[in-house]
Amino acid sequence: MSLRAKLLLVALSILALPWAGWQFVRQMETLLRQGQEQALLASADALARGIAVRPGGLPAAGESWFVHPLDFAPRLDGDASDWRGATAVPLVFGGPKPWVRVVAGRASERLHLWISVDDASPQRGDAHWPADLAFDRLHLRVLGRGGELALRLANAGPGELRVAGEDGLPPPVRVEGAWREREGGYDVELALPQDFSVRAIGLRVQDVDAGGAIRSAGTLDGAGLVRPAPLHGVLASLEPVLQALAPEGMRVRVADRDGWVLARAGELRADQSEEDILPWRRGIYRALLFRDVTATANEPPTARRLLRAEVARAVAGAPAVAWRRDPAGARLLLSAAVPLEVAGQVRGAVLIERSNSEVLLLTDQAFSGLLGVSLVAFLASGGIILLFATRLGQRIRRLRDAAEHALDREGRVTPFPRTSARDEIGDLSRSFARLLDQVAAYTDYLRSLSGKLSHELNTPLAIVRTSLDNLDDARLDPQARVVVARARDGVERMGHLVRTMSEVTRIEHAIEAAEAEDLDLRALLQGCADAYEALLAPRSLRLDLPPGPLPLRAAPDLLVQALDKLVDNARGFTSERGWVRLSATREQGGVRIALANQGPLLPEAMRGRLFDSLVSLRDSSQRAEGAAHLGFGLYVVRLVADLHRGHAEAHNLPAGDGVEFVLHLRGMP
After folding, report:
1. Relative to the CA of 534, which of 31, 172, 281, 600 has its CA 20 to 30 Å away?
2. Inter-residue long-range contacts of 623-626, CB under 8 Å, 24+ positions, other chains counted
3. Total tally of structural domains belonging to the chain
4. Is residue 622 part of a domain?
5. What is the pTM of this model?
6. Three state DSSP letters for 93-133
7. What tens digit of pLDDT does each residue of 398-442 get?
């Protein structure tokens, strides 16, 4: 691929901008939802506290009956079709498989009851029959303004309801009702007198099967006796209070411990996104933003009972929130439920709901802005990168052409064009020019030196090697072979000497052309130490650097070469169980770099000559690790120290267990 194509390919990385923006939009939507949850819980808690201040009319903390408000009195015929949906969610008894369903309603201050009993083996009898006879019957215990009333309800057949007292005699009050037989059971519908003012009611249903076995269900205590439960219903007096306290655009409902709605107020704000957001965008938000919401708000606003998980948790004493999809649009509906506590007892729950259309509108605005910014940024960056790639490719091609014609057919260096550009391409062009100047000078040097070296070194070395090779074929005694081996080692040493001198010459030229730059010496030493650990293993490397940076104007490549020479020298004199310590400190006028190693001490007579050329203290065992050492390493260290306006020194450690080499550097001008 061409450079232009590669840069255009790299430009595609800007596509990460829309992805990052979308992640931001999702995170923003999540944070806004969390903020809505906290705010809605706070509003619900404030409403619950306001209601708890005036708890009149709230149901008791224990078991109680919810009385449905009826628009008109139903016909007492045992058919619940005229109860207008009140029987849709009845109270049930006789678990685990309930077989008794009860609904209480009030019309014109008169209490109505509808009781449905599942009975597969009817054993019928009239209410006035003796109580010790086994037949199907209902027992009511009613508390009202006239006192306590115990009633027995039973019919031998369908028709007008038969009512008697517990003693089988006619009751003191007139109870109207009907007994209706149906397949699999019977239904009882009755109405108590208007002037009785029922406050509590208890029920026990007795069912007798064909074998005489009796089962009972209803509001029973532990001994099986009827326990009256207080009545409560819709609190019309509470709705004006809720209407005044409910936040605008929210729906508030108060429910008892069984979920029956006692009061309601407020309406949800209309979904503004239906008009302000395009349908395809709503589809995207519904598919991507609302993936974590699976429930749908199918419950009608006028529901008589709230069968919700958050309401159940609130009745249990813990606040809860829930998100649901709006089946009619792309918005979410948030509901928060908190316990309604009075004197430390949970009397019900407060449920408050709102929509998140505002969040959806903000998300749409952010998404629209993201699309626009991403498109402009992509087009602009793509155009700029294309122009830059074209210009960069032209400059690199000119540099390539100049490099290809830098040497003519005869090996002579031609003038290299220089540029004044201050970027990396300009630096590379000037580096090529300096390199070619050095190559030209070095070529001239090699041309002048080649004849001398060929005559003075190569030819004698070749003669000696040939002679030694011929001696290998001769029959020599062992002592003579040792001498020949020593001679061959000397020849190899002379060859290595020629190569080492060439390396020193190269480093000297590098020192002459070195360019200074500002660097952090601490970071440089840290990076070098990471590489030296593997080289020195199994020896241990200790690093002692100051906590802060060590600024220095220097040539980093030459400093690294000097450190390489010092580390190689320390490796040769340190046993495998020994240690090497590299340290640096700031001193007046510059920095101090020290490399200490555990090993033999320096002879006093050699301290002043260690940094001279061709001086080495290595014995034969230390040379065995690699090629012969000719003493040029510390000489290079001295040249690097001189370049940085400093000096190098070596001394024995005070403890007498090793040697320390020190570089005092002031920096390049």
Report:
1. 600
2. 625/571, 625/572
3. 4
4. yes
5. 0.51
6. ECCCCCCEEEEEEEECCEEEEEEEEECCCCCCCCCCCCCCC
7. 888 888 888 765 466 777 777 777 777 788 888 888 888 888 887
